[in-house]
Amino acid sequence: RDNLCKQMSTYSKGYLVDEDRFDYMKLSFLGDIKAHYRTLRDYTKTYAHAKYYDEAKTWNERCDVAFPCASQNEIDHDDAINLVNSGCHILVEGSNMPCTPEAMDVLKRGPMF
């Protein structure tokens, strides 16, 4: 159970948190939602314990690994502080320059890989 992912940031303007974790079946369901142009809110109709945060940034959630993949300058100074303070250990850049220069300064000083 510990090898399952707790949070998932997605393509929408918000994000999902599932405290019961995302397993293969739930990830497949999310793929189906995306393939049929439905919203992440539909996930919470099936899994009522999950929470969808509309128009919110995921970088305030506690995480071990962050994958900013949406756009340039997605993570700013305050987001970087939130990531470091929440215990994030690894940041994987999935887009071109996802962090502002100010965010990079924070991340370089923190225990981030």
TrEMBL record:
SUPFAM superfamilies: NAD(P)-binding Rossmann-fold domains (SSF51735). Gene3D superfamilies: NAD(P)-binding Rossmann-like Domain. GO terms for biological process: glutamate biosynthetic process. One of its GO terms (molecular function) is glutamate dehydrogenase (NADP+) activity. Residues 6-110 form the Glutamate/phenylalanine/leucine/valine/L-tryptophan dehydrogenase C-terminal domain. Pfam families: ELFV_dehydrog. One of its GO terms (cellular component) is cytosol. This is NADP-specific glutamate dehydrogenase isoform X1. It comes from Tanacetum cinerariifolium.
